[in-house]
Amino acid sequence: MIILGLTGSIGMGKSATASLAEAEGVPVHSADAAVHRLYAGALAAPIEALFPGTVREGVVDREALASRVLGDAEAMKALEALVHPAVRAEEAAFLEKCRAAGENLVILDVPLLFESGRAGDVDRILVVSAPAAVQRKRVLARPGMTAEKFEAILARQMPDAEKRARADFVIDTSRGLPAAGEDLRRILADLRGSSRSLST
């Protein structure tokens, strides 16, 4: 089973690309989706204990939490010590299930794949990218996003050019979903072919 790591900086079109892959029948595990589930479940109480006032009606208020940890390296480190192991456990269960089902290709959608030292956990890496002006426009259009918050998030992420240089595949999402879908289908066909040749 080939594990394709999908990553890219904020606003580069990672979620849209993951959805395209799912439409092509590839199982996808999204770290972001796992965090959403955990914030509404197992991690709500520990996060409230660590950062009082960040949980509303049993669910982590992401805006309140972001305001507490962004720009505070120690707070971010403490949060990651809670979140990362829980996400990794969900990911491991996903991979085990896919192997048992005989899948030949799966995607791990990991926003900070390079930054968190996870590049060695996948077989190939796909980076989604777009020009900086397009990225900025997309991100600042999000509800609750400010230029300051965007800059704080960017400061924690590896520069896009470096991600592209380290990737096996790159998709430029600024050309629109149809073009991105075509690029993705070519990549998936290539990987599925590799998987079949490895198993024979």
From TrEMBL:
InterPro entries: Depp_CoAkinase (IPR001977), P-loop_NTPase (IPR027417)
Keyword ATP-binding: yes
Enzyme Commission number(s) from the entry: 2.7.1.24
CC annotations in GO: cytoplasm
HAMAP family per the UniProt record, alphabetical: Dephospho_CoA_kinase (MF_00376)
Subcellular location: Cytoplasm
Protein name per the record: Dephospho-CoA kinase
Family assignment from sequence similarity: Belongs to the CoaE family.
Binding-site positions, ATP: G11, M12, G13, K14, S15, A16
Functional summary from the UniProt entry: Catalyzes the phosphorylation of the 3'-hydroxyl group of dephosphocoenzyme A to form coenzyme A.
CDD domains: DPCK
Single Gene Ontology MF annotation: ATP binding
Principal cellular location given in the protein's record: cytoplasm
Assigned keywords, A-Z: ATP-binding, Coenzyme A biosynthesis, Cytoplasm, Kinase, Nucleotide-binding, Transferase
Organism: Aureimonas glaciei
Catalysis performed (reactions): 3'-dephospho-CoA + ATP = ADP + CoA + H(+)
Xref: PROSITE patterns: DPCK
Pathway: Cofactor biosynthesis; coenzyme A biosynthesis; CoA from (R)-pantothenate: step 5/5
GO biological process: coenzyme A biosynthetic process
Keyword Transmembrane: no
